[in-house]
Write a structure and sequence with these properties.
The protein is mainly alpha-helical. It is built from 6 helices and no strands. Helix 1 packs antiparallel against helix 3 and helix 3 crosses helix 4.
Length: 140
């Protein structure tokens, strides 16, 4: 019986592991926020409009979005901005080629998956949803 219970939770475990590691990796990219001069210089050299705003916005989205992904908090809200950032990375660093910007494209796909399926059962989102539904049951 224990084997059946474990195999039933295996997909949730997989989604959780992938979500946490994806978030952790994006946090690491977002930490460039604290040493952003190189990115701002790159954006200026590439003639990206509003390079300071663009650079800070991208790094804040990566850092905060990564934290949210690790926790499974507001997953469906943070993944669209993260997808936009990854598209921007593909556009600027790989000149629009998904083959040259394969890591950014992989992140974009993973964010798309989390946008569609959510954070999974082992997340703050799931915990909050259960808490709200239990409060509604008590009211009714």
């Amino acid at each position: 019986m224990a084997k059946r219970s474990f195999s039933k939770n295996l997909p949730e475990l997989g989604i959780t592991i992938i979500r946490v590691f994806t978030g952790w990796l994006i946090i690491r990219y977002g930490q460039e926020l604290f040493n952003i001069d190189g990115l701002l210089g790159f954006l200026k050299d590439e003639n990206i409009p509003f390079p300071v705003f663009t650079g800070y916005a991208a790094k804040i989205i990566e850092f905060v979005g990564g934290i949210c992904l690790v926790l499974g908090l507001f997953t469906r809200w943070v993944t669209p901005p993260l997808m936009v950032v990854m598209y921007g990375v593909i556009y600027t660093t790989a000149h629009g080629s998904i083959f040259e910007g394969e890591f950014a494209f992989l992140f974009l796909l993973l964010f798309g998956v989390f946008w569609v399926i959510g954070a999974g059962k082992w997340s703050v989102d799931h915990w909050l949803a259960n808490r709200v539904s239990k409060k509604k049951e008590k009211i009714v």
